[in-house]
Write a structure and sequence with these properties.
single chain; 450 residues; alpha/beta; Aldehyde Dehydrogenase, Chain A, domain 1; Aldehyde Dehydrogenase, Chain A, domain 2; 2 domains; 7-stranded mixed β-sheet; 6-stranded mixed β-sheet; 41% helix
C-alpha cells in the first residue's frame, strides 16, 4: 500500500493499492491502443478538449488545491495559484500547438522537401511532489496536444493529487487512457521504461533518480528529458535597487516553503551593500507567517516530510560548524523548519555547494564582478540565475558568462509556458514548455519529393 500523509498533522489521509504486474500491463496496453486512434485526431479536436481541461481546473481549483496542501504542506493560496497556472499551460498549448507543429518547408534540390512533426506514442512521466500539479501539466499539455499518450508515475506521497490529475482529463472528456496515473513505487519504473510500448520518458527529480532513468532509457535507445535539481544564485550587484531586490529575493527563496528546484538558494551580495541588504532581508523574512497550510494568511507551511526537514537541519548545522553564522531561525519541529538565514557562507559549505530544499539560505559576499560570476558558475548545478542591477548594458554584457539554462534580470527564475525551461550540468538536459518543449517528444520526419 502507498500512503498519503498530511505533513502538518501527521494524519494518514488515504491509502492506495499499488498496481500489480497484470494491471500495469493492462494500463500500458490501453495506452498503446488509444495512441493508434488519438494520433489521428486533429489539432482542433485536441484543442477543444484541452480548453475543457483548463476550464475544469479553474472551476474546481479549490478542490484540487486543498488536496495539494493536505498532501505536501503547500500554503493554500499558493496551491490555488499552482492549479491556475496549470490551466494557463493547457490554454497555451490549445492555442499554439498547430503553429508549433506545422510542417516546415525547406528549399533544397528536391521538387519539394519539408519536415513533419509527428507524435511518437506513449510517454512515461516520472514526477515529484513539490509542485504535484504543475510539474505534471507542463508535460501532459504539450504531450497530449502533440498526439502522444501520457502515463504518470507520481511521487508516492502525493497520490491523491495524481488521481485528481487523471480526473481532470476524464472530466474534460478526453478519451479513456489518453492520460493514466499508475499507482506505483519506484521499483517498478525500470521495467516500465524497458517496455516496448513506452517510447520516451521525462523525469523531474533528483540527480540519482535522473541518472537511473537516463541509464535505463539509454540502454533501450529511448529519448529522455531530465529536469533535475538546482542551486540558483541570486546575485546583488552594487547598483541594485535594494528595496525591490530584497522583496524579489524573499519570494524567490521562500515561496512553496523553499521546496523548488528553481528557488534562489545562494544569495551572493556585493560587499559594499551587504550589511544594508542583509538587514532588510532578515526583516522581511522574519515577517513571513508560518502555520497551518490551509489558512489563507500562511506563507510558510511544513516541508513535505519529516526526513526532508531533518536533511535541511543537518545542512545548516554542518555549515555552522564550518564557520557560518545563523542570523535568523535554525530551529526545527518535526516537518516544520523555521525560515533560516546564514551569513559568512563560503563555497566549501553545504549551504553553498549542495542543493537546499526548504526555507533556508546562505549569504556570500563578493568584491569584484568577475568574482560574482565565478561564484555562480562554480556550482555543479546550472538551472538558472537571477542578477540584480540597474545597468541593463552591463547585464547584457555578462549574460553569456553564466553557464545556466536561464538568466533572469531583476526577477526570480520562473517557468512560463511561452519560454523554454531546463538546465545544464547536473540540472539535467532537454527543454520543457514553449515550442522547444513540445518538439522534444515528436518524430521530426524529413520528407523529400524528387
Amino acid at each position: 500500500m502507498i500512503e498519503s500523509k498530511n505533513p502538518y498533522t501527521g494524519e494518514i489521509l488515504e491509502k492506495f493499492k499499488e498496481l500489480t504486474k497484470p494491471e500495469i500491463d493492462n494500463a500500458l496496453e490501453k495506452a498503446n491502443s488509444r495512441f493508434k486512434e488519438w494520433k489521428k485526431t486533429s489539432f482542433k479536436e485536441r484543442a477543444g478538449l484541452m480548453n475543457k481541461a483548463a476550464a475544469e481546473l479553474k472551476k474546481n481549483k479549490e478542490e484540487y488545491a486543498k488536496d495539494i496542501s493536505l498532501e505536501m504542506g503547500k500554503p493554500i493560496t499558493q496551491a490555488i495559484t499552482e492549479v491556475e497556472k496549470c490551466a494557463w499551460v493547457c490554454e497555451y498549448y490549445a492555442e499554439n500547438t498547430e503553429k508549433h507543429l506545422s510542417s516546415k518547408n525547406i528549399k533544397t534540390d528536391a521538387a519539394r522537401s519539408y519536415v513533419n512533426y509527428e507524435p511518437i506514442g506513449v510517454v512515461l512521466a516520472v514526477m515529484p511532489w513539490n509542485y504535484p500539479f504543475w510539474q505534471v501539466f507542463r508535460f501532459a499539455a504539450p504531450a497530449l496536444m502533440a498526439g502522444n499518450i501520457g502515463v504518470l508515475k507520481h511521487a508516492s506521497n502525493v497520490m491523491r493529487s495524481a488521481n485528481n490529475i487523471q480526473k481532470v482529463f476524464e472530466r474534460a472528456g478526453f478519451p479513456e487512457a489518453c492520460f493514466q496515473n499508475m499507482v506505483l513505487g519506484s521499483s517498478k519504473i525500470e521495467d516500465i521504461i524497458r517496455d516496448p510500448r513506452i517510447k520516451a520518458v521525462t523525469l523531474t527529480g533528483s540527480k540519482p533518480a535522473g541518472a537511473a532513468v537516463a541509464s535505463t532509457a539509454g540502454q533501450e535507445i529511448k529519448k529522455s528529458v531530465l529536469e533535475l535539481g538546482g542551486s540558483n544564485a541570486l546575485v546583488i550587484f552594487k547598483d541594485a535597487n535594494i528595496s525591490e531586490s530584497v522583496k524579489t529575493c524573499v519570494q524567490a527563496r521562500f515561496q512553496n516553503t523553499g521546496q523548488s528546484c528553481i528557488a534562489g538558494k545562494r544569495l551572493i551580495i556585493h560587499d559594499s551593500i551587504a550589511e544594508e541588504f542583509t538587514e532588510e532581508f532578515v526583516k522581511q523574512v522574519r515577517e513571513l507567517k508560518s502555520g497551518d497550510p490551509l489558512n489563507e494568511d500562511t506563507f510558510i507551511g511544513t516541508l513535505a516530510r519529516v526526513d526532508l526537514a531533518e536533511d535541511l537541519e543537518n545542512q545548516i548545522q554542518d555549515s555552522v560548524k564550518a564557520g557560518a553564522k545563523i542570523v535568523l531561525g535554525g530551529n526545527r519541529n518535526k516537518a516544520y523548519m523555521e525560515p533560516t538565514i546564514l551569513t559568512d557562507v563560503t563555497p566549501e559549505m553545504s549551504m553553498f555547494k549542495d542543493e537546499t530544499f526548504g526555507p533556508a539560505i546562505g549569504i556570500t559576499t563578493f568584491n569584484k564582478d568577475q568574482e560574482a560570476i565565478d561564484l555562480v558558475n562554480i556550482s555543479d548545478f546550472g538551472l538558472g540565475v537571477s542578477i540584480f542591477t540597474e545597468d541593463m548594458q552591463f547585464a547584457e554584457k555578462i549574460i553569456p558568462e553564466f553557464e545556466d539554462g536561464a538568466v533572469f534580470v531583476n526577477e526570480l527564475v520562473k517557468s512560463d509556458p511561452r519560454l523554454p525551461f531546463g538546465g545544464t550540468k547536473i540540472s539535467g538536459y532537454g527543454r520543457e514548455l514553449s515550442e522547444d518543449g513540445i518538439k522534444e517528444f515528436v518524430n521530426k520526419k524529413t520528407v523529400y519529393f524528387k
